[in-house]
UniProtKB/TrEMBL annotation:
Residues 58-80 are annotated as: Disordered. Residues 238-265 form a coiled coil. It comes from Polarella glacialis (Dinoflagellate). This is Uncharacterized protein. The keyword Coiled coil applies. Keywords: Coiled coil.
Length: 287
């Protein structure tokens, strides 16, 4: 993920096409000078690889007996049919070791199987989908605001070049140039506000991911302490969860640092033109 001064790393193919808004940028930048810097759209965080592995065992469809059918099952009549355990499509539904009520009054479910209720999985999947849809919308708004600012700045520079080439310094032309400069400053503030909003949204996602990883690590520790035998698989999963949590913490700290940098840039812009002061943008970091 390319963010100025930061490389956010994630796993999995969920958001492999992060440059979905690239066509918008191309349309707005065709008229810009070739030497003008191109804006790089922010990409979105992705969930760790172990969550994608959990998703491979996700329930795909409800069976008549109320159990979720795993990807390897052919139907309720399959001799090897059983209740699938795991998480939702995004690997984000629940911890793989968290137990749920057994399928009651079902001949296909063994007493030792733990299942994820279909309603619970669906609600969690919808929650994650809406969260990422909101991030995409914020990313789109931020990128379009940046394109508008770049276009206005390029237009203002072209007008200045035309003024110097023609040797025109009349009041009307100067007033038009000042209005163009004011519009450029307004768009710059708008672009910074959208960028702050995007960073704040990314921080909220990271906070949720850290909380879920910590919850999973706690569950694994409790299971490991209560187990009378050495469980190598649990130990490896616990180490992976701690590693992912530490990486997310580092990314969160870096995002907070970038957020402060952007706020300082906003303060510098507002110091040049106090009429454009907008405290709402500076409050985004505290949300």
């Amino acid at each position: 993920m390319h963010v100025p001064g930061l490389m956010l790393q994630g796993q999995g193919p969920l958001w492999a096409g992060q440059d979905v808004w690239g066509s918008c940028a191309a349309a707005g930048q065709q008229s810009l000078p070739q030497s003008y810097p191109q804006s790089q759209p922010h990409t979105l965080p992705r969930y760790p690889a172990w969550m994608s592995q959990i998703a491979a065992n996700a329930p795909s469809a409800p069976q008549p007996n109320g159990c979720a059918m795993s990807p390897g099952q052919s139907g309720p009549g399959d001799p090897g049919a059983h209740c699938a355990s795991g998480a939702g499509a995004f690997g984000f539904v629940a911890s793989p070791i968290r137990s749920y009520p057994q399928c009651e009054q079902s001949p296909d479910c063994s007493a030792s199987d733990s299942v994820v209720p279909v309603e619970h999985a669906s609600s969690q999947i919808w929650g994650v989908t809406l969260e990422y849809e909101n991030l995409l919308n914020v990313q789109r708004d931020q990128h379009l605001a940046t394109v508008r600012h770049m276009s206005a700045e390029a237009s203002q520079l072209r007008q200045a070049v035309q003024m110097f080439q023609a040797g025109r310094y009349d009041e009307g032309f100067m007033a038009h140039s000042l209005r163009a400069k004011d519009e450029e400053m307004r768009l710059a503030v708008e672009a910074k506000q959208k960028e702050l909003e995007l960073f704040s949204s990314l921080l909220r996602v990271r906070d949720r991911q850290i909380g879920e990883l910590q919850a999973q690590a706690s569950d694994l520790q409790r299971r490991q302490l209560s187990s009378s035998r050495d469980d190598g698989a649990v130990s490896e999963t616990l180490k992976e969860a701690f590693k992912q949590t530490e990486e997310l913490r580092k990314e969160k700290v870096e995002l907070e640092r970038l957020l402060l940098v952007k706020e300082r840039q906003m303060n510098a812009i507002q110091a040049v033109n106090p009429e454009m002061a907008d405290s709402s943008a500076l409050q985004l970091g505290a949300q």
